[in-house]
Amino acid sequence: MISDAEPVVSDQSERGESGDDIAISCRVRLARNLAGEMFPDWAAETDRARVYNAVSKALKAVRPDMHVALVDGFNEQERDVLCESRLISKDLLGNPVGGGVALGAEKSYCVMINEEDHLRIQGFASGLDMHKAWCVADEMDTALERHLKYAWSPRLGYLTACPSNVGTGLRAGAMLHLMGLQLLGELDRVINALERLRLLVRGICGEGSEAAGQIFQISNMDTLGVDEALIVDRVQRICTEVVRQERNARARLLCELPLVLVDCLARSLSVLKNARLLSTAEALEFLSAIRLGAAMKLCTRLQVSDVDDLILAMQPGHLQKIRGVVMTSDERDEQRAVFLRRQMTGVRLKSTKV
Amino acid sequence: MKCEICHKADAETAIHKEDESGTQELYVCRKCAAAATVEATEKVAAKSPRDNEPSMPPLPLMGMILDAAFEIVGRALSMSDQSCPTCGITHNEYRKRSRLGCPTCYETFAKELDSAIFDLHRTRQHVGKVPLRAQAELRRKNIEDALSEAIKGQHYEEAVTLRDRLRQLDAENDREEGGVSA
Q1: Segment among A180-184, A233-237, A272-276, B79-83 with least mean pLDDT
Q2: Do A42 and B101 touch (CB under 8 A)?
Q3: Contact A157 B126 (CB under 8 A)
Q4: B106–A159: do the CB atoms touch at under 8 Å?
Q5: How distant, in Å, are the alpha carbons of A34, A138, A219, A231, B137 from that of B127?
Q6: What percent of chain A is predicted at pLDDT more than 90?
Q7: CB B23 within 8 A of CB B10
Q8: Is residue A39 less than 8 Å (CB to CB) from chain B?
Q9: Could you give the ipTM of this predicted complex?
């Protein structure tokens, strides 16, 4: 058993009320399109350029401090950084003509232009504060609609390129770290239950991505027939319950499977301290375990927020930005291992009786 | 469009026919297309009776192949017939990419989309936010409806009040129109 003297699960005051050790962040996205314009996927380059100009003009009128730019104005490394920071999607990069991004100064909101829809307005919040993210996105949306005529119908609401988003055009999602449930072997049960509740469970990079590092995005499936406040409230309530289950799983791990837990942490730390080559996916798997260790106060020197910073910093775009050079995939694997070895210096597992 | 050979049945497909003046494109019915193909096949068979070439399938088999081909083409034609008047996207094109062409596609393909939307969301009616412009339009429409009712019922005092409200709404809209409407 782990020593009683060691504080194993941090208390509420240290963790913050939103439970940031499990809920990494949340986001509310609103899909909007301009009336009378073709949707981006089918639009000609001139149509996309016209939409970009209209939207960027409106954005500058609403928030003069906002940085609005075309994505093809960014170099590959800058695009990767935006993508890894989850401010823009890979879809936006896939079709860059007229594709744009508008970033708020404090990065609590971001607008993608000419992605799947003409506008993807996103509000962000750390932890599990879905209401805050919704308010940010809603405020921006209301301000913009004074300058832009949205495609909207009384029956179907906001008209979107894909009927799966029609209605409110709202996707409220939280990013949760569910490693405790995974180690206990209860993750599939939780995911099945979420899907039965008509929630989408996706990987770290959104639609179509794998659940690397046991980090999941959980969001609403239905966008039609339920109003925005109810969607946001429902996702918040269900995610709060998932966070509670993950917290229980972590507590149970200590009692029921302490050897499994400590073995997982020790192996991960050992690899991060000794590996000479590390791919992004591998590093994410091991850092995910270290994140769990930090959250459960089983690792010295590391806070959960430190591990979150490392998860971002070790990704290709960020790594090249830190190093200040463009690297091949092999070079990045080597430099990632060097970077993480250095970051893990002095980090060790707290003494346990296991 | 009627068949350009028999001038009776509806044209379902296009064939290319060779005559003295060159190749001609004709829009024909299923029966005439089959007959033209058999005729062309016989001509080719008569022209090149070489033993070492693979023989054509017997005519009944040709007919079956043609029927199957018509089935597929006919289905595709009936689906792709409908295209959006605003963007020109057909329903088939939408199905291939799973993305509609423009907002008007929701009206154009309403019949096809209705069940898909219901399957996705288990409802067909939006609830929630209404854009400010749409709110104003709905308000205006309600007043217009009430105004025509008032005129029809010869309630002229009420009609004057409603007319003034419409004017007031228009003035408010004019004041708000300072943006960069796309």
Answers
A1: B79-83
A2: yes
A3: yes
A4: yes
A5: 20, 16, 19, 11, 17
A6: 81
A7: no
A8: yes
A9: 0.85
